[in-house]
Amino acid sequence: MIDVSLRPNRIICGRESEVQVCLVNGGAGRVSRLRFKLKGPLDVLFTRGAGTVKVGALAAGDERCHDLLVKGERAGTFAVTVTDFSYRNARGEYEEFPDQTLSLTVEEAPAGGNGPTQDFGAISPKKMRPPDEIGRALAAIRPRLLEVLARCGPFENNATLRDQFGDPRLWPWRRALPERRSRQERIEATVSFLQERKSSQGEWALVLFLEVLAERIDPGDLCRQELEGLIETLKTP
User: Which of 65, 167, 179, 180 could cross-link to 22 by cystine, CB 3.0-4.6 Å?
Assistant: First the structure.
């Protein structure tokens, strides 16, 4: 079974955005000569990477992603169809898949700016600390931050962690994200990696990461409350 997904599955209206179509071999055997085409509605333009996509071979459990440039002409949720999907199975037999439909959401551009939207259910923004104050705040709460992430964060494996970076706010750092063998090493490496980075709008990558994690947890859950508390400490002067 080949699982197909779009990452991220949200883009901003009127802008070319980097998107990946990713395939995971969920079966027990190796497949080869994968190929497919992507089709979208008139309001979704593939400006790079469309046509016939040839992926090659995938061992059991492996993932392969293909880069696209996509532009949404209007806001809405649209169906992107994976069609003409075929491959050779482990026995060398040719197999065809039925068309698959993937969902792509095109968000309205934020008013008064060209940066990525920050409101996918996000915590309301407040005035940010200056960079030097943020660094001091992080040093003060780092042990607590690592403890909360160990209980509440998606650090089971590298793939689960990387999935969080499908959010448009974290997308710029998805490829450079460090990989580690143990959960604790993964947490510490991620914090160290993100604390050194900012978005093109000057937002601290570590704060954006914590916001994404908090938004994916039920509002009544203690983990969300603890993550929101850490965000407030880092953001509020």
Answer: 65
